[in-house]
Write the C-alpha cells for this entry.
Amino acid sequence: MSGMRTREPGEVFGPRMTLFADMLSVGLATALVCLPLVAAPAALSTACAVLRGAGEGQPATAGRYFAALRRRLRAGDLAAGAVALAGALLFLADLALARAGLPGAPLFAVVAAGIGAVALVAGLRACARPESLTDWPAAVREAARDAVRDLGGSALVLLAVATAALCAWMLVPLAFLVPGPLALALTAVHVRLAAGR
C-alpha cells in the first residue's frame, strides 16, 4: 500500500480514503455472503485476498470481490464453513454447560474460553493466508504456526475481533460493516508477518 498515488489537484479524497471506501464496500459484500453461515470462511478469505491485492495495485471493489468469490467457491469452502460452524456450536454448548452449575464449572469455562480463543485466532489467520483460496488444511496448519510464532499478531487479531464485536453490540447496523475492517486487520497482520520475515 506504500505505492499509492498522491492526491491530484482538485481531488477531494486521497487514496487512503478510497481504500477505506473500498474496504467498506468489500465488507458489505462479505456480510451478505456470510448470511448463510457455512459460507463465512470463504467470504472472509476472499475479502482478505481482494484487500491484499489493493497493496499490489489491484482495485479492491465489490465487483472484484464477487468475481473472485465465483471463481473460488468449491466443496472444500463449504466443508470449512461447516467445520467452523460446528466448532462454534460446540463452544456455545460447552459454555452453556459451564453456566448450568456443574462441579468445576468456573475452571471449565476458563479452559473452554482459552481453547475457543486459540481456535478463533487460528481460523481467522487461516482466512488471511493466500493458501485458503485453494487449500484450507494447509492454510490452517500455517495459521496455527503463525499464531504461535507471532504472539503479537495473534493479540492484534483478538483485539480486532473484540473491536468488531463491540461495534456490532453498540450499534447493530454496524454488524454489516464489521467484516470489512476485520478482513483489513487480518490482512494487515498477515502482511506484517510476511514483511518481518
Q: What stands out?
A: The two ends are 18 Å apart (CA to CA).
